[in-house]
Amino acid sequence: MAARTPIVAGNWKMNLDRAKSHSLAEAVASRRGEAAGVDLVLCPPSVYLETVASALKLVGGSSPSGVALGGQNACDKTSGAFTGEVAPPMLVDVGCRYVILGHSERRTLYGETDAIVAAKVHAALAAGLTPIVCVGELLEEREAGRTADVVSKQVRGSLAGVAAADLPKLVIAYEPVWAIGTGKVATPEQAQEVHALVRSLLAGLSDTTTAAKVRIQYGGSVKPDNAKDLAAKPDIDGALVGGASLKADDFLPIAAAFRG
Ligand code: PGA
């Protein structure tokens, strides 16, 4: 099996202010060594991207600490009359290397469909960003035994038209919606089962060698005390962390759990 570098990203959502964004980014950068060998990404609100870029001392997307910057969303267009939107090249311009796309909050609160997510994935890849593409089922879908169907449809739809060779340029985040912000984490077995399914879907879109290169994160109430058991699963290559990414004392131990 291909060795995949683990990746742990902090999705700060619509939290913190400028001063807190700066100090949290500085704290993560200064303690980065605790998670050596794990790719770390911070995704602040877009108005604080430059603040975090300066705290990380980013130059052209690279920082001395190796902590990378990511957006939480992006437009599928590169410029023009799209009030309120942020274009992928703009994210690159301020130092982003990653962008979260199709987060369940975007899907459920802002009506993002798989087709919209796919258009954004194409635009992000064209700009040279690594999309973190989120998928995951609702509680009622899990209870109805529809998890595999729902996740399969989301993966195929959100990656529609992506060339097989480009799949390793993106990251998939499996985030069961019922586990996001609820404190109700999927068991490592439940997560591994879906991660394995996602990898087999990726193999169907390409081949097993290509699929083995794609990193698949788990997201949904990841905390320092459950990260190790998740990290022990073969297809769980990192975490997309919401609430626990807002404190360096929680985020670093989670990232450290994914050290090889
Ligand atoms: P949570 O959020 O860690 O607060 O559950 C995860 C996410 O929404 O990415």
Low-confidence stretches: none
As a whole number of angstroms, the C-alpha radius of gyration is 17 Å
Largest sheet: 8 strands, parallel, barrel
Q: Tell me which ligands are bound.
A: 2-phosphoglycolic acid
| Structural class based on helices, strands and sheet pairing | alpha/beta
Number of domains: 1
Name the CATH superfamily classification.
Answer: Aldolase class I
What number is the mean pLDDT? 97
Number of strands: 8
Our measurement of the CA-to-CA distance between the termini, rounded to an integer number of angstroms, reads 15 Å
Give the CATH architecture: Alpha-Beta Barrel
Order of helices and strands: EHEHEHEHHEHHEHHEHEH
Roughly what percent helix?
25-40%
Q: Give the CATH class.
A: Alpha Beta
Q: Biggest sheet: strands side by side, in what order? A: 1-2-3-4-5-6-7-8
Count of alpha/pi helices: 11
% residues in beta strands: 15-25%
Shape: globular
CATH topology descriptor: TIM Barrel
Q: How would you describe this protein?
A:
By secondary structure, this protein is of the alpha/beta class. The chain has one domain: TIM Barrel. Helices cover 39% and strands 15% of the residues. The protein has helices at residues 18-30, 49-55, 88-93, 104-109, 114-126, 139-143, 147-158, 188-205, 208-211, 224-231, 248-257; strands at 7-11, 39-43, 67-71, 96-101, 130-135, 171-174, 215-219, 238-241. An eight-stranded parallel barrel has the order 1-2-3-4-5-6-7-8, surrounded by seven helices. The longest helix has 18 residues, at 188-205. The mean pLDDT is 97. Bound molecules: 2-phosphoglycolic acid.
